[in-house]
Amino acid sequence: MEPCPTTTITTQFATLPDPRVERTTRHALLDLLTIALCAVICGAASLLRSRRALPNGIPCHDPFGRVFARLDPVELEHCFLAWVRSVAGEVVGHVVAVDGKTLRRAHDRAHGKPAVHLVSAWASASRLVLGQVAVEAKSNELTAIPALLQLLDRRDCTVTIDALDCQTAIARQIREQGADYVLALKENQPTLVAKVADGFALARANAGADLAPAQYAAALTIGKDHRRLERRRAWLISDPESLAYLNPADAWADLRRIGLVEAERRIGGQVSIETRYFLSNLAGTVQALAGAVRAHWGVENGLHWIVDVAFREDESRVREGHGPENLALLRHIARNLLPQERTAKCGVKARRLMCGWDESYLLKGLAA
Predict the structure, then answer these.
(1) Are residues 276 and 326 in the same domain?
(2) I want to staple 95 with a disulfide (CB 3.0 to 4.6 A). Which of 53, 105, 295, 313 is the partner?
(3) Total structural domains in the chain?
(4) Sheet holding 128-134, edge to edge
């Protein structure tokens, strides 16, 4: 059989430092990474014996456990970022959604180790995972998001973040890195939410008098899917006086817009309405703000849901050392690779099965 083709993964991960003592090393680190990636995709360990040299045979379970528990997740993340940049290029003008997810079974209660929580960045247009950072024990996402943003260093894109991480320091860092922000507001900041709600109530009352159309704009979109009808109404305020009232000390860097999105969902005879508020420095139209808000939820459907359903991430009991976050990153690589192979018209879960059934299709997936 022909050897595995050289891929960007092979190139970018070749510099990853090996944490093992050289005299005890029987299997090359890149071989272990390649086999593990194939196993994540389809469990195809037998393929590698004919495609890679493997002078000491196919490694058993223990070397994988030791290597992934000891691999430096920061170094692995740097290799991952280099690989993503090589295949995705720049994300100028794109929406980058930042959101967290807990590896629910990666805990060890007997030794007081909580489940690992990861913060990931997702490019909505290219539908690729751009990076991840694990939240340190006894900490929260507010410490991990700045580290992730620093790693990404994405300029001229729009970063969207959920309400729990809507903080002035994060907004300032995004602007300092040359990106725009759309930050959600909820009840975790009741005073600010109340001010924004009052601002929209006043704007609605004075829309025909004191505010110019450009300072108070509205948009409506209607979507229908899976027997669900959804109306999304969006409003934004760019009135300087209103913004000065909300941001008296310029705490929110370059604040230009406050937004309101009202989603009305009809499923059968049931109707639900959800109202959300947003802070943003975007200078565009209300449609641009509403589009960024809508794009943010791609991280839930395109990443979190996929790794849970197609890769069964929440069932993984790997918990030793850095194993949980390192294997989560392998799942992100597989998640990025599989949709890039476009000859099969099916979902990620079906593509994983096809990779297990057909070695040639697996090679196409690896080279994607």
Answers:
(1) no
(2) 295
(3) 2
(4) 128-134, 116-123, 95-103, 158-161, 180-185, 270-280, 257-267, 228-237, 216-225
